[in-house]
Amino acid sequence: xxxxxxxxxxxxxxxxxxxxxxxxxxxxxxxxxxxxxxxxxxxxxxxxxxxxxxxxxxxxxxxxxxxxxxxxxxxxxxxxxxxxxxxxxxxxxxxxxxxxxxxxxx
Length: 106
Fold this sequence. Notes:
The chain is of the alpha+beta class and about 110 residues long. It contains five helices and four strands, in the order ββαβαααβα.
């Protein structure tokens, strides 16, 4: 099985979309600073994942989720529960992708 997943940085209030064959190992890598793109935004929490039969399917869905309509779909259908909990913990605005966050920092 291959997985597409969504992570939430509770400290920075951003989402990360990815895909992998080993979900537990990949989450561990994200939270132990082994992934360059997610290292600055630790810690990460898994908020959604979906299983696919092939790597191609998981990767295609990941790429879709990274588009504007895909993010909108994900926020509405997959992460609304995580967002509600995050608002209770102090979120002040709408979710931002890690790509948007990096663009604003440079």
